[in-house]
## 1
Amino acid sequence: MERTEKLKELFQPVFDEFGVRLYELKWIGGRDRTLQVAIMKEDGSMDLDTCADVSERLSEVLDASDPISEEYTLEVCSPGAEREIKDLSELDHLIGSYIHVRLSVPFKKMTEITGELVSVEDNQVTVSYRDKAAVRKAVLNREDIEYARMAVRI
């Protein structure tokens, strides 16, 4: 089992304890390595206090089990306001959210659309977007979505 998979397994009870889920666990940096643990609540939100509490517990778990031999820094963070939606099944829980999608098959000559996620039904994703002064709806095939992320409304 790969080291990150072992860490995920080791950390899962802490995530359960605080009601968060792992978004991403990765090593960053060269000589000064950082173990970055991105977490979020079930609704996709995150707050600084929860990050700090989870960080403290993960440090305790790491100190007790000592699974990492080299020096590193632990960083527990939010995946960010414009986090990538890695699994499109997550769209089912994001109705009403502002998202950005990149399409493999253009919709009305557009390969990118940013707008509010209106509905997800079977393989159809509906996004309400602005086209100049008009609000329009794009009904997209889920398999045509090449990339999706949360977006910030400006």
## 2
Amino acid sequence: MLIGKVIKWLCVAVLGVMGFSACSDDPMGGAAAYGSPTADYKYMGTVTDEVGNPIEGINVVLSGIVNATGNASLTLKTDKDGKFATVPLKSHSTQIESIDFIDVDGEANGGEFESQTITPKDMTKTQTKEKDRWFVGEFELSANIKLKKQ
């Protein structure tokens, strides 16, 4: 009976010390990492007409989960060079399922263009920052989109 109580208290002490040691800083100087590895993704590209002229004012709509805000989309506009880009979006809080290119200004910027939809798998993926522990790295997903006139 006495041996059972001693073993029980010994287990409590050992497990307690192990629990506290698991919550301490790691030997590399940072806090212990928990969860899933993450990465940052920057979506970018150029939108042109069929002959290669840049199209300004095209809505670029990234649909899915955006920065865990509950928003189902993020809308950008192409600039005068037909370019668009997001800031790096965190993979643990963003999951883009599709990207729509929509002409919303009609004839104002070179004519009326048909809409087009792609997925991130259709884009070129380039790593721009190396991985570091639980951070898998930063990537650019780029696409050159040619829209057809209506």
## 3
Amino acid sequence: MEIRAAVGDITQIEADAIVVNLFEGAEHAGGATAAVDEALDGAISSLIDRRAIKGRFGEVAIVHTVAKPGQVGARIVAIAGLGKPEDCSADRIRGVAGEFCRALRKLNCRNMATILHGAGSGGIDLQASAQAITEGALLGLYTFGKYKKPEYEDIEEMLIVVSEESSLPVLEPAIGKGKITAEATNLARDMINEPANYMTPSQMAEAAQEIAAKYGLEFKAFDREDMETMGMEALLGVASGSSQPAKLITLSYTGDAHSQRTLGFLGKGVTFDSGGISIKSSEGMGEMKGDMAGAAAVMAALAAIAQLRPQVNVTAVIPATENLPSGTALKPGDVLKAMNGKTIEIISTDAEGRLILADALSYAQKLGLSPLIDLATLTGACRIALGTLYAGLFSNNQDLTDKVLEAAQRAGERMWQMPMPEEYKEQIKSEIADVKNTGERAGGAITAALFLSEFVDTTPWVHIDIAGPANSSKESGYTVKGGTGVGVRTLVELALDEARSEEAV
């Protein structure tokens, strides 16, 4: 969909639909909504008086204008509910945009125009509103239509209409950034939603290579022989049950050739997780094609960063493999040696994500990457603890934690800092190796993070467990069913922050 800013009177814009708004509790229309109401002879006021529309968040009321042509330039007027004024935020505007775009798509709209939502009494600045509308529209309209024809034709164009031409230089970069970040998130969604037979480790490497070629990134993919030479027994141990070869993939962006510092983004890339010998129940196993959501997020984030071109260096490290049972598969009781030399006793082969990340973190340290941020659909325990809206954040560095949380807040991605008490390390002590790969059921997300901490030494590091929000079972706001692409926008915001920090030094 093409999105651009335009100067004009929203009542006179010729389009299939125009969008205005209403706050919850408002007794009358104001601003542009009042102008449209007047052009419609009080149709919106009548709906408010009859409480047919209430302005609740996510509500989209439709007024058809074809019965009285000439009043406005569009055949449909949509009134988007913004919710309570005190709750207005950029993320709410994203959600509003997703809702009204889907509603208008169902009405066969091909082009539409909208005002800037929340930019008046909502207190949202023009740039933030424009970026949020752009992101919400593109994210909310996303469909994975590769193997099934979508039910509705997509909207082709959206105008963000303002009254002053002086606003255009401010809005255009915001729309551009929103488009890049939303399209990157949708790229991650595409990868997550792919069936596992079309997103093998080798095909993930091919996808990374395509991203690198398109956006000018440096690409490398290491095969089994390379990983054996590097001593990556943990990653290769997980891969041993599958006929699909494992890959260790790197993508690198150089935005500051004079800097010796490079951020490290790591993503768990288990393209299908059966649990291995510790096999999962069949119920819901099909969703395990999305166990590479962390890998998809870091790859897509690099694609966005390459387009935004911040003065910062970033390298993504993606360990990719399947986790399947077979006669050659890893077994409970086995012992593996990670790249950093630490030995690992295998308690459960279904705790495989931390194994492949152990080698990836060790490799990232060898490359000198710092700080390190890993994303992984790591534990069901984190989903139980925080539900499906929040990712759990674990770290050995509070300053880095604060930066990531601030970036997540701006991106509209919910994360919650979790504790890492030393006492819980007792659970992963082994009698025959340096560490066990899982502890007790209680506190499982924490012991998984403590396991990963064994492979980062003193490097500033944040682990983000995205098991909860990585997949959605329903449409809501700008979230659609299937893979969500969570983490992409946070990583992009973090890279932009780091670039600003470097410039300030």
